[in-house]
Amino acid sequence: MRLILLGPPGAGKGTQSARLEQKYGIPQLSTGDMLRAAVKAGSAIGLQAKAVMESGGLVSDEIVVGIIEARIEEPDCVKGFILDGFPRTVAQAKALDAMLKKHHKELDAVVELVVDDQILLSRIENRARETVAAGGTVRADDNPESFKKRLAQYHELTAPVSHYYKSVGELRTVDGMAAIDAVTAELDAVLGK
């Protein structure tokens, strides 16, 4: 199964992707995780992305598309994959379509987790508090100011991706404001169709 999971930052894409990964035996490809790993490794692409990510900005299409294309060619993606955090723009969605066509693949589903902005902000603040309470370090892009920037960028640049997939008849929606297990059950129902 080749799946895109859409939704604003903090909507639960990572949590639901991990559950889908276990259920279907396919890897979760989180561009955010891949970019953070590149930053941590100090790679050239990581250094390019670091300043943008820390300011709450979006990394360029060229960098993200290159990371995704290389990743879907790895052996663990033969049976499929879950894209979490990609595509972020309509241009990336179109680039993904072209990339998949080039590799003789197509998407099986595009699902959007629909959530309220105020609930998202509350989730991010709670995640930051829980991370600190557990002795961890809060991600630079998880502070309220950066999150508000990310959310504004989501509405400006990424929300149109949902409209793009809706216009081609591929978008399915799930209530992302429900409890985690309820969201999982609704995702299972949507993907089972």
Please, could you describe this protein's structure?
It is built from 8 helices and 5 strands, in the order βαβαααβαβααβα. The chain has 193 residues and is an alpha/beta fold. Strands 2-3-1-4-5 form a 5-stranded parallel β-sheet, sandwiched between helices.
Quick tags:
single chain, 193 residues, alpha/beta, Rossmann fold, 8 helices, globular
Reported by name, the CATH topology is Rossmann fold
What would CATH call the class? Answer: Alpha Beta
Note the beta-strand portion. Answer: 5-15%
Low-confidence stretches: none
Would you report the number of β strands? Answer: 5
Major sheet characteristics: 5 strands, parallel
Number of helices: 8
What is the straight-line distance between the termini? 13 Å
Main sheet strand line-up: 2-3-1-4-5
Shape: globular
**Rg, alpha carbons:** 16 Å
Judged by helices, strands and strand pairing, the structural class is alpha/beta
Give the proportion of residues in helices. Answer: 55-70%
CATH architecture: 3-Layer(aba) Sandwich
